[in-house]
Design brief:
Strand content: 35-45%
Number of strands: 11
Order of helices and strands: HEEEEEEHEEHEEHE
Low-confidence stretches: 1-16
Largest sheet: 8 strands, antiparallel, barrel
Mean pLDDT: 83
Shape: globular
Helix content: 10-25%
Length: about 180
């Protein structure tokens, strides 16, 4: 039962979600913004704890429901054109032990974000649009279903060219406190 919320959250996060084999940023393209560090609560009452960035401008993000189950991500903040993006890469997930852990395949998931004074507003890739677009334009971006296989520079170029790619309804993660 303690994993029920986390399973629901992960299903929301990845259902119809576009993932990428490669990140949407190189180390030189990461943004270090200490004001991003804090505790946020999402629309489903999930808690995001964003730790201050490390020396390579990576944030550790812990996502938990009520403290019983937590997933840990390495997250990078980057900018493409005039928009900010968060690139999530899983480091751990509850239940990933033993034989199951051998089959855990980590992929990047990224979101377009607006950094607001009261929180973070995020949008996901419109998976139906991307699927339709890549079916009609197979050479536009190397994909396999909703998995992007293109290298980072091509992915960034595609995002810059297709600014309307992130068409989902925004989700607000409200800041509860700062972490210094």
């Amino acid at each position: 039962m303690k994993y029920k919320f986390l399973v629901v959250f992960v299903l929301i996060l990845v259902s119809g979600c576009v993932t990428s084999l490669n990140p949407i940023q190189e180390e030189s393209q990461r943004i270090k913004d200490p004001s991003l560090a804090g505790v946020y609560v999402g629309p489903e009452k999930e808690v995001f704890i964003i730790m201050p960035p490390d020396e390579s401008a990576l944030y550790k993000v812990i996502i938990t429901d009520d403290g019983d189950a937590a997933s840990i991500f390495e997250v990078a903040l980057t900018k493409i054109e005039d928009k900010h993006y968060l690139d999530f890469y899983p480091l751990s997930c509850p239940g990933q032990k033993g034989f199951l852990a051998l089959h855990f395949s980590a992929w990047h998931t990224f979101f377009q974000v607006d950094l607001k004074s009261d929180g973070i507003e995020s949008r996901t890739v419109d998976s139906q649009w991307l699927d339709s677009y890549t079916d009609e334009n197979p050479s536009a971006l190397l994909t396999h279903g909703l998995k992007i296989l293109a290298p980072t520079d091509e992915l960034r170029g595609f995002i810059a060219k297709h600014n309307g790619l992130f068409k989902s309804e925004p989700r607000l993660y409200k800041r509860q406190s700062l972490i210094e």
